[in-house]
Amino acid sequence: xxxxxVPSLREAMVSVMTLGESTLHSPGNPGLVRNDWTRAEVRxxxxxxxxxxxxxxxxIHRMHFDPAEVxxxxxxxxxxxxxxxxxxxxxxxxxxxxxxxxxxxxxLGAVLDEARAAKASGASRxxxxxxxxxxxxxxxxxxxxxxxxxxxxxxxxxxxLGMLTPAQAARLKQSGLDYYNHxxxxxxxxxxxxxxxxxxxxxxxxxxxxxxxxxxxCCGGIVGMGEGAEDRAGMIATLAxxxxxxxxxxxxxxxxxxxxxxxxxEKFEPLEFVRTIAVARxxxxxxxxxxxxxxxxxxxxxxxxxxLAGANSIFYGPKLLTTPNPGRDRDMALLDRLGLRPMEx
Length: 345
Ligand code: SAM
Ligand code: DTB
Ligand code: SF4
Fold this sequence. Notes:
Blueprint: H1 7-17, H2 39-46, H3 50-64, E1 69-79, H4 108-120, E2 125-130, H5 137-152, E3 156-160, H6 166-175, E4 179-181, H7 188-194, H8 200-213, E5 216-218, E6 221-223, H9 229-240, E7 248-253, H10 270-283, E8 288-291, H11 300-308, E9 313-315, H12 328-338, E10 341-342
The chain binds S-adenosylmethionine (SAM), 6-(5-methyl-2-OXO-imidazolidin-4-yl)-hexanoic acid and iron/sulfur cluster.
S-adenosylmethionine (SAM) binds near residues 90, 132, 222 and 257.
């Protein structure tokens, strides 16, 4: 088949086919879960002609999922702002003047009211985010009460609270936490340009603690931070060579927030974002890939391409943590027009 193709497509396919037995076009093992993805293999996927990449991602998507199903999560910032970290993208870092006011941890009742509303509007998972570097043990106790309450409503639970010790992860598991979100954000070599108050290894250590505790891992990153193509390949290669793939992989498009160091950077090329989703889908075939932050400013056509590329989850509701997300009516209308429906739990 390769011989009948135009030269550039043939070259790209041959380069992928010759990368190894178990890569993209591995006849015996399509959609195989591998944890030994090399940077070169991931780079070669990014370099495929767009139709070829999309076809392969869509093919692999169908092997493990119903491509018409989208998992629906709703976010709530349970503790907003005042964070001591220096993540260059983040409106909640205390050191940047972004207009986000530091607040205390929300009361249990108020969190449960939001969770009830999320369930009523069709979400299957409720994700609670806190602007902490790492929670204190008494913070974890408070969040555990929230997890118990949200779970009792019949929702899946997710939390993102910063770095955890193994004991804190075990405590969260005991409370019934289903998922923990902790992003690697970018490649190991670009990380230091974005965050200096913690290391990539700190992130990996928390991911280990979460995995060890038996909590599902939600881990992905951000594109559009001024990173290079090599960094996007490095990020996906790192995620796809973790000992177990994250069950959930959020791919965020940077939301540029005035006052953060990354505000005012160049707008990111939408098709390169779609490619990142497709490569994540191919490298982590059984993971749910979330089209995460950045949809507010994304065309419906780009979002549709992301679903075609294998994205099968979104954040639903008019607010992410502190920034806007499309309204529920707009999203339901989009899913409806695309013939997509909420994923059964
Ligand atoms: N403080 C915790 C932490 O950093 O892990 C939890 C909350 S933090 C806001 C969760 C994730 O949101 C970050 O890891 C980052 O990937 C994402 N995020 C934050 N600001 C963003 C922005 N402006 N655009 C896109 N993603 C963003
Ligand atoms: C993730 O990967 N993206 C979400 C969630 N995990 C916690 C957060 C996006 C935050 C966007 C900026 C804000 O709203 O503050
Ligand atoms: Fe703090 Fe998390 Fe924002 Fe970094 S991403 S500044 S750790 S809230």
